[in-house]
Amino acid sequence: MIAGTAAALANLMTGRFPEARAAAGLVRTLSAQADRGSISPVPTAFLSTAAVAYAHLCQGDLEDAAARAAEAGHLFTGMAHPSGRRWTLALQLLATVQRGLIDEAGTLVTALRTMPDLGQIRCYDIDEVVGLAWYEFLTADPAAAQDRLEQAAHGWLAEQSAGLALLAAFALFRLRFDDCAAALLDKIEVPADWPFGTTVAALIRARSPADYITAGDAFRAYDMRLYAAEAYHLAATRTRPPGPKRSRALHLAAALAQQCGADTPLLGRLNPATALTRREEQIAALAAGGASNREMAQHLGLSERTVENHLHRAFAKLGVTSRLALGPHVTAKRTDPSH
Length: 339
Fold this sequence. Notes:
Layout: H1 2-13, H2 17-33, H3 42-59, H4 62-75, H5 82-97, H6 102-113, H7 125-138, H8 142-158, H9 162-174, H10 178-185, H11 195-205, H12 209-221, H13 225-237, H14 243-260, H15 278-288, H16 293-300, H17 304-318
Helix pairs in contact: 1-2, 1-3, 2-3, 3-4, 3-5, 4-5, 5-6, 5-7, 7-8, 7-9, 8-9, 9-10, 9-11, 11-12, 12-13, 13-14, 15-17, 16-17
């Protein structure tokens, strides 16, 4: 079980989230079958469940992350592991603040602040530091949020924990403290063989639409949907690229943010008009699968003119000019609308 938990955590740290979930699931199964008369399997089950929660969090599955973190916390009820309980509360807080749920976040903050002081910051306290800073930012105390993150980052730099310092810089950037994040990044040596770290650094240093879109594409490839949504939204709103690229970036940002149920400072007020309607999505998918306007009209019980209008709006929102280019944006569930 220990080896399985180690595998889950190792896969998390390198961004291999499906593998992390698989390893954590195996640990939980073994824990359930363990002999209760021997060493308690609960700590290992806790770690594996928390690992899954962390994977959900990194991928932007915020509701699932909060639920799994709460489950991990329940596993430690009545056990003398306050550090584990703190971590699960921090994970819940991170998932909650990124959904903009301030009241729920306040309850978690109160619980964290009533926990005993455990002294020196441990490696996973990055989650607590970021969660508390995010809550301070949302409750109109941005100076406290900035100060908390900067102090933690400098402490980690002094301990030569560059990875944790980079995560603090990323949190500063996501809370719109761009200059602070950039200044901190200048002091951090990001390992070249850490893809997530190099992408974060590239995003903080981004200046052009292409820079932001490249970062968004990289996060999307890692299945980090929320970070991808933020990068695409920055591409569309900070640098004002040409029309088609801006439309595509806004659409991707809106679609990914909706999947995550996210409400973060970098997403701002996403315009719902940038996301395809259900009918536009349906028609775009059929068109990408090779259906003609007449076939779609017959299948959907619409006029050809109505189909043309929906398709035209889908093209405009996605920033494409051909049916072939629709492929990366929609899933063609049917190639023949008559089926």
